[in-house]
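User: For this week's homework, look closely at the record that follows, marking any run of repeated tokens, and judge whether sequence predicts the tokens.
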Amino acid sequence: MAARPGDQSATLLLACALALLLLALQPQPCRAQQPPSPGYYPSATLRSLAFSEAYRTLWGPQHQTLSPDGKSLTLWMDRSSGSGFKSARAYRSGYFGASVRVQPGYTAGVNTAFYLSNSEEYPGHHDEVDMELLGTVPGEPYTLQTNVYVRGSGDGTIVGREMRFHLWFDPTADFHHYAIIWNPDQILFLVDDVPIRRYERKTEATFPDREMWAYGSIWDASDWATDGGRYRADYSYQPFVSRFADLKIGGCVADGAPGGCQPVPASPSGAAALSTQQEAAMLWAQRNSMVYYYCQDSSRDHALYPEC
């Protein structure tokens, strides 16, 4: 028997409703996979430096090559050694950035780091501010670890202040810019100018205020870097290669006149507080990409972390 017109209309409406429901349930291509614009791009205010303008080879010279234009550096690690470089001058504050691209595939245990430190000046009692791309196993993402050590908390008994991220992009596919703004009142960690973490000066005991140098390196951190050391560097995959480019420093040098340098502003207004757009971008990054924050770790002794 043929369906009546009213039945056909009802059936059509039901089919349309089901189709819309199924569409709504499908994974949507994604505006949410990119952070909102921070509205402020401090990296654009600084020029890229030739390596020799700001840095020197620190160790493993046989495991690094400089590009013909002198502006990008390739580091690699094999069973015999990794490699590292260090800024020619020490700084009291500033902007420190580098574009980095890491290797795909099996890279467990490999640590590609861009960081500030004074470990050579204050051995056993040093300060450090880290951005570390921690290697992984196929099918799992790289982890970006940010960390702050203050006056020896990275020496002996480790008191780390880690915040870790699985980034919203593949760091092996292209270069991305990783930067630290270290000012007297805060440390800001940025990825492609998006603030991902703000570490404020709440007490003198929990904030690094001595001069530091900028470093880059690739090294074997198998004991802890990948799933707490479960997966280690496998040298059947060597060499492990990391590339650094677009090196930028806008800092107040330690040997300069105390009042002769203004810190690089963390926000467009020049104030310590981030703009509304920057706050929104940072909130997005932490909600969508953060996978660990030490202040939320109940296994930590929070008496050691008064800033939490």
Summary: Residues 15 and 21 are 10 Å apart (CA to CA). The two ends are 73 Å apart (CA to CA).
